[in-house]
Every structure is written in C-alpha cells, then in structure tokens.
Amino acid sequence: MGEIPMKSVDDLRSRRWFGPADLRSFGHRSRAKQMGWDSKDWEGKPIIAILNTWSDLNTCHTHFRIVAEQVKKGVLQAGGLPVEMPVMSLGEIYTKPTSMLYRNFLAMEAEETLRCHPVDGAVLLGGCDKTTPALLMGAFSMDIPVVYVPGGPMLRGNWRGEVLGSGSDVWKYWDEKRAGNITEDDWSEIEDGIARSPGHCMTMGTASTMTAVAEALGFSLPGASSIPASDSNHTRMAVQSGRLAVEIVWQDRRPSQIATKEAFENAIVTDMAIGGSTNAIVHLVAMAGRAGLSLPLETFDDISQRVPLILDVRPSGRFLMEDFYYAGGLRALLKELEPHLHLNCLTVNGRTLGENIVSAEVHNREVIRPLDKPVSKAGGTAVLRGNLAPNGAVIKQTAADPQFWQHTGPAVVFKDYNDLAARIDDPELPVTKDSVIVLQNAGPIGAPGMPEWGMLPIPKKLLEQGVRDMVRVSDARMSGTSYGTCVLHVSPESAVGGPLALLRDGDAITLDIPGRSFSVALTEAEFEARRAAWQAPPPHYERGYGKLYLDHVTQAEQGCDFDFLHGKPASVPEPEIH
Ligand code: FES
User: Fold this and answer.
1) Domains along the chain with CATH numbers
2) Relative to the CA of 93, which ligand 1 atom is closest?
3) Given 231, 516, 525, 545, which is the most exposed site by the fewest CB atoms within 10 A?
4) Global confidence as pTM
C-alpha cells in the first residue's frame, strides 16, 4: 500500500474548537474544565468519539457500557481523549413497528453527532441488526477515521441439553407448539434458555451477517466479528480498537480509502459464503450508496453463482456462532475464500485483507468447509426477476426446501398483515401445500418500514398435516434467522402499485430459482385492467419522522436509504464555529 501521510496536531479537527486564542475557544476550554478536564487531557491529542448504541431496551447491547470503558482504556493508552456519546440504540426486539423504519434515523444521527462535535475519529459500537449498517452509513457520509467494534454473538442457547439458536428455534418450536407437539411447560423452558448471555443473535442472522460483512469490508480488527460477547478476547479486541482509533486519526485513514468497489465485492463474497441474511443486500446497497458506489442486484447474484456456501451455521446449516469462533472464525473462513477475494484491499489497521488472514487456520472442517466440499454449491441468495418483480426480488435459496426451487401454484392473497393474522389459521381457508401464500402492503412504504414479516406463517391446518415449508411471497424482508421458501423484497412494492398489488386468489404463480424468475400467468391486458381499478392505500404518517421517511425512502433494490442522503458528498461539510 502507498504511504499515508501523518497528521500534525494543528491538523486535528478538534483544534478548531480548542486551539484558537479567541473568545469562542475560551468558552470551549473553560467548559471542558467545568467537566473536570485539564488542558493536558486534550492538548495535542486526538479526541475519539465512542458512539454507543446502549440502552436498557436493547437486549443485545446490555454489555455496551462496559465495552465503552474498555475502548476508552485503549484510547487513553494510545494518547487520545475518549468521549462517549449515546446514539439511538435501535434494538430489534422492542423497536416498533420495525427497527428498519429507524435505520436511516440512526445513520443521520451518527453522521451529525460526529459532524457537530469536536471529534477527530470514532469507535462505533454496534451489533444488533440495523446498528451496523446505520453506524457505517453515517460514518461513510462523514468520512472521518472510524473503527467498528462488533458487540459479539451471545452463547449457544440450551434446552434440556439441546442446543437452541436464536430466531431459528423460536420459529421451529412455535410451529411445533401450534401443531400440538410440545406443551406450554416445554415452551416456557425454551423461553428461559434461548437467550442466556449478553450479545446479539448467535445464528447467522442479520447481526452476525452484518458484523462479518463490516469486518470483510475492512472496518474491524481481524477476527473481531466472531468473538462471543462474553469471551475475554472480546475485551482485548475492544481495548485494541480504542488504541487503533487514535492511530488512524494520525494516519488520516478514512472510510473513503477503505470502502471501495473491491471491498464491497469482498463483503458480498463473504455474505454468500456464510449464508448471510437477505437483509445484507438492502444494507450493503445503502452503504455502498453512501460511498458513491452502485451495487446492482445482479452483482449479488453473479457472486452467489460462483461462491459456494461453506459455513455450516444455522439457519442454513447446523452450528452456531460460538462454534464458528472455535473453528477459527471469520479470519479462517476468509482464508478459505482467498481465491474469491481482492486480497489487496486496505483495512482499518493499515494492512491489507490478505495480510490480515495470512496466518489464519481452520480448526473444524465440519463448521468451515473447504471450497470443494461446501454445504451448498450455490451461495446463499438468488435474485429473481419477472412480471411480478420487474425491479427484482430475492430469495435465500439455501434456506428453502429444494422441492420448491421450481414450483407453480395458485395464489392465496392477503391484502395486509392484519388480514393475514385474521385468516391464516381459518380452517376454511382454501389453501393446500401447493398454494403460494402472498402478503401485500408489507414493503418500505406499505408496512411501513419493510418489516421482517417475510417468513409468512404456514396455515395451521397444513402444519397439522406435517407441512413445514411452502412458497411464500411478499415485499417485506425476512429475519436472517428465518428459513423457508420465501420470496422477499419484491419491487416495486405493492403500496406504490407494483404488480404484487394486482394479484388475486387463484392466480398461477411460478417460482423458478435456477432460472432466476418469478412470474404470474397474467397477460399485459389483464394487468392493465387490474391496474386501472387499483387504489393506493392511505399514508401511514402525516407528520414527523414518519412523514419524512414516507416522502424520501427508496425501494428495496436501492437500499431503502433516503434519496437526499444517497451519494458521496464532494467534500465533507464542516460546521462554522462562531
Ligand atoms: Fe439483536 Fe437478534 S435481536 S441481533
């Protein structure tokens, strides 16, 4: 890599607040002293913001106040001044109607928090699904040096000696309960054992996917994303990240030097090899947009067709993140993937991706498979097009029953989530195992917020017959911990008049994953007649953030970012200091 110039003290961004001999800087310094700081705390030192997504209502970030202290230790060791700054915590579990509605909110908050304060660099503390893309989107737009510290997965769940995975086993045992195969007491015991330590979901859900992707992009220390939250190696990684944040300020190593087209391709290769969440597509498109790059859906499909799934972790496989860590973690997986990676990409520690994985080894070949003995030859995700999804749809093929990879069946249509909830278990519902269940109005605008409703429930009467998968279709997303033959992200969404809105019960829908198509047997004239009769649903919001969201959110294939935030600014606008 080329030499990166060192910054001088006078180049520090925070000097604009603390350096000048004027009245305004007097105010900044005297108020720093109000907080008990001494000029020795800041003179000649980079100020490192620790953007902390902790809150009492983020289940996955309960340890983040402790992690922030560990990062501070590292910043102080390296001669910086750490300042902890809270930003929206955005936990999946309690944020309604869906955390996706607020991903762009956190991205904006992260960017503006960095912009309006005297900070020279930042450590970003995230993990639970949307926090990783949101923090990085904000950092890319602000373009000051950042290190991403992933919160780490929780330990394996346990029920009577059986390993439980978050999300995946919730859906599995919920279906067994609905089918009458487990008792209320069993269900209560599962509730006690499925999430038993700090950390994010320990399946290859969106959190584990996005933290792996952030590391593959080059924004975390090598191996960081696989370390369980409660492992002491996580502590050392956090301290080391604090030290690194100071170093990269002096080196002026900014996101724009790391988040290149090749780095995004590495991220997608990783996503496919780990069987990552379909949500990663929406997030990566949005993140790339902030870096001024375009990622068409076909890029994901191309990479999916040549990169096999080699990680045997649920929901596409058998193991959990803890097993992945003991098997060598992401470094070992990337080592296996070397032929598919751009190894000369710069990463946040100043070394290339190739240098970071040079000594990595796989310790368990059951968990991380060799390229020539993959879990599945096809990568995790396929992109579909056709008259039902002119702008694209996606499916996690590795989580779908192969009997449905090519399937035609009659539609059973639900006009929204409430309609689905009211009728899905009706014994009179005209549905068979060959039907295609369709949910309308579940997209970015229609739901709103494109929630994770995409793993539509199997009707109870079919569950009782032993049916555990069938073709399901929506413009929603799906939790990364979910599974099944679920066509997702259908675009344009039904709420803006996409073809999905025009479907009726009995329409013959064809899914062809190998052929990458998704269509309905309707003529253009029939489409036109239905379109003429279609009426847009009323907007969900008339004011506030919701209104801003509805007015500016883009469709799934554009990443669902706000249109006015997309793109890389020609220069990073700095606040006037008066
Ligand atoms: Fe936070 Fe799953 S709920 S990662």
Assistant:
1) 9-17+49-155+197-356 (no CATH), 158-192 (no CATH), 382-533 (3.50.30.80)
2) 3
3) 525
4) 0.95
